[in-house]
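Fold this sequence, please.
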Amino acid sequence: MLEVRRLSAGYGRFGVLSDISFSLAEGSFLGIVGRNGVGKTTLLKALAGPVSASSGSVHFRGAVLNGMETAQVAQQGISLVLDRKGIFRSLSVLENLLLAQRLNAARTQRWSLDKVLSMFPRLAERIKAPGGGLSGGEQQMLAIGRALMTQPDLLLLDEPTEGLAPLIVDELVRLLQRLAKTGLTAIVVDQRLETVLDTCADVLMMSRGQIAERTSASQLRERPDILAQHLGV
């Protein structure tokens, strides 16, 4: 589904990513881990459009995404969730979800309002509450729910559990595990290693803007040397 070929990108003259290459099969969850500042979020933004590639290419279902605006990339079926951002605080949960549904109305509607609310019981309970009145965990659920309502083929999640209470983190991890069983394709970036290991089959280890290693989550659990080298744990 996704193939990244020798991608380099950054901000103006400040390069962050260098010679990134990897592929992602449809229906799989891929985790990305690494220390702060190694380029994880920049990589997601380079895939979704906000950050332009300086060299290399991104191929999605055979289409080359280089040069596309963020809205055009979204129309191709890629949705980026950046840590609770993107919700409308003055609109209700229902209004947030219905507005998102209209963004890609021409796409096959695999995620209906009822399906999203069944996946997020907390949102169903607070359907009339304003987005700004939700807890941090509920706002994260709404941000993911909004992304699903745009009918993505590929969901990019940046730090979905950051700053949340342990019980809410556990709830979100279970949610991601349920989403994986639906056949959704996703890339998950999270500073909390267990979130990635519990939800993703394969993991990219990033270091200094490059991919240092790709391994399975099960192998990574058994390789403390890799964890110590790239994460300091």
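The CA atoms of residues 75 and 104 lie 6 Å apart. Residues 166-181 form the longest helix (16 residues).
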